[in-house]
Backbone:
């Protein structure tokens, strides 16, 4: 299928963003934006009941989920580098990967949720769907294309059985 020039002009800049920002850097950036929003709009803050416990719970869940993903990759002796999915040496489908295809990114989202609870500012929470959208489009989709090239039907079958996030 041939794409028109206008379509190519829209697609090419988008492709250049794929796998360019390390996910940990994106978490720090999203957290910074959330902080800036809370600072810029303090009147939109609110009281979050049991705030400390909820923050600790969300951060602990996020750290555990991401950590289980890293542990599973290390045990399978495959790369943990999200910028080079083509260097994957094994398709990991056990452990936490039976529940989610992206436990590290899911863990990051939980940690950002904890940060949002800590900030207790309504508009700061709007960064969370933006983070998930960016991760889906510019990190996960390119990773999944690479995994399909590397592992073929095994990855396609796995992707139909396990959800991307939860």
Residues:
């Amino acid at each position: 299928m041939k794409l028109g020039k206008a379509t190519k002009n829209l697609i090419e800049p988008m492709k250049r963003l794929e796998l360019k920002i390390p996910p940990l850097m994106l978490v720090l950036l999203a957290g910074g934006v959330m902080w800036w929003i809370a600072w810029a709009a303090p009147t939109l803050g609110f009281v979050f009941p049991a705030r400390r416990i909820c923050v600790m719970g969300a951060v602990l869940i996020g750290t555990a989920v991401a950590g289980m993903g890293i542990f599973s990759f290390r045990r399978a002796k495959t790369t943990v580098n999200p910028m080079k999915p083509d260097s994957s040496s094994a398709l990991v489908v056990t452990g936490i990967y039976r529940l989610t295809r992206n436990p590290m990114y899911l863990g990051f989202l939980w940690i950002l949720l904890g940060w949002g609870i800590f900030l207790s500012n309504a508009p700061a929470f709007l960064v969370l769907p933006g983070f998930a959208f960016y991760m889906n489009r510019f990190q996960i989709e390119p990773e999944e294309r690479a995994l399909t090239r590397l592992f073929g039907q095994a990855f396609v079958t796995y992707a139909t059985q396990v959800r991307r996030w939860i």
